[in-house]
Amino acid sequence: MVGDKTSITDFSEKEMRTYWSYIKSHRYLKYLTDKYIVTLIAFGIWMIFFSSNSLVSQHKLRKQLKDYKAERQYYLRQIEINKQHIHLLDHNLEHLETFAREKFLMKRDNEDIFIFVEE
Fold it and tell me: Would you write out the chain's pLDDT as a tens digit for each of its 119 residues?
């Protein structure tokens, strides 16, 4: 019958015993009916996918930490470069004058500055 729906309550007691005996006799299915195994599987699925400390969120946090460490290394390198520039500017007047002319467009009294803008 096409529209006939059967539920678990429609089976007789003998059919249910046959069904459970089949499950218990099967090598892997008997472990899946153990309440401790079912609880362990549910707990594992919960911890892997739904927990706030799930593997997915841990992966994202590790990736974010890796990015932050790379960014930190970049800024440490920039600090060292800037320290070298500051040392040069403090101890060499030629570099100080060159820096002032290039960055702040400073000039001497008898000079003119021409700025070329590329379009």
Answer: 455 555 556 667 777 777 767 777 776 676 677 788 889 989 988 888 888 888 888 999 999 999 999 999 999 999 999 999 999 999 998 888 888 888 888 888 888 878 888 88
User: CB of 47 within 8 A of CB of 41?
Assistant: no
Return the structure tokens found at 110: 């008898």
CA distance 116 to 112: 13
State the distance between the two ends of the chain, measured CA to CA, in whole angstroms.
80
Provide the b/e sequence for 28-56 (b: ≥16 CB within 10 Å): eeeeeeeeeeeeeeeeeeeeeeeeeeeee
Written as one letter, the residue type at 116 is: F
**pTM for this one?**
0.52
Residue whose tokens read 């472990």: 31
Which residue stretches of 1-119 are H helix? 13-25, 29-32, 35-45, 55-91, 93-104
